[in-house]
Amino acid sequence: MIRALLNNLGWKLLALGIALALWLIFVGSPELLTSVIAHIQYQNVPADLEMSSEAPERIYLEVQGPATRMRNFDASRTAVVFDLSGVHRPGDYTFPVNPSNIVDLPAGMELVRAVPGQVRLHFEPRVSAEVPVRVRFSSPPPEGYHVVKEEVSPPRLTIIGPESRVRQVGYVESDSIDLSHVIGEAQFRVHAFIPDPQVRFASSSEVEVFVRLEKTAQGGVAGHEGAATVRH
Question: Looking at the chain, which terminus has fewer C-beta neighbours within 10 angstroms, N or C?
């Protein structure tokens, strides 16, 4: 009997040590509860649809697990992934948050709850449109001068986004241009801006603005093209 117990004693002690360590990790270690901020990611995004709802950028997760696991838990890598492969037509779609779509949650840790526990997204057809570029002037020309010509190149830019959002954009505005030190002709390279964050430019938003200033004649405005209005 004793000889049988002593046979392979080293291996038996090693197995006992491993079993004890595992017990301490998964059973003997106290349970801790913590909150994690998880960013949202999307996969299998439909090519012809756009999200038009204001979706949250992050979700708060309450997770629980052994203290030994919690100490080595890198919360910055945790994300909630929503699979959009089932989205084929416009409309509302609800996506629950559950352990199956949380990535990089270590073994031994479990999800207690998510806030919000589900996300509803609204999808619309993706459309594009050409809209004019309006030039903004931050200050008027020097005293005694006025604008006789104003050109934008290109005069129109293509925007893309959810159908209802794109239809509401009648024009885009350039960054403001300071005319207070301009005499004669001047060219400016500036960017155009879309006020709706869910609508974007199809390509570059940069435009070139050409302005020509002339002296104002006494008793009136010189030049046959008339004065342009300074917009703020």
Answer: N
Distance CA 36, CA 58 (A): 10
Q: What domains sit in the chain, N to C, each tagged with a CATH number?
A: 29-116 (2.170.120), 126-215 (2.170.120.40)
- Residue 90, classed as helix, strand or coil, is coil
List, for residues 169-210, the tens digit of each pLDDT value: 999 999 999 999 898 899 999 999 999 999 999 999 999 999
Cβ-count burial 35-50 (b if 16+ within 10 Å, e if not): ebebebeeeeebeebb
Q: Within a 10 A sphere around the Cβ of 205, how many other Cβ atoms?
A: 18
pLDDT of 102-141, one tens digit each? 988 877 788 999 999 999 999 999 999 999 999 999 999 9
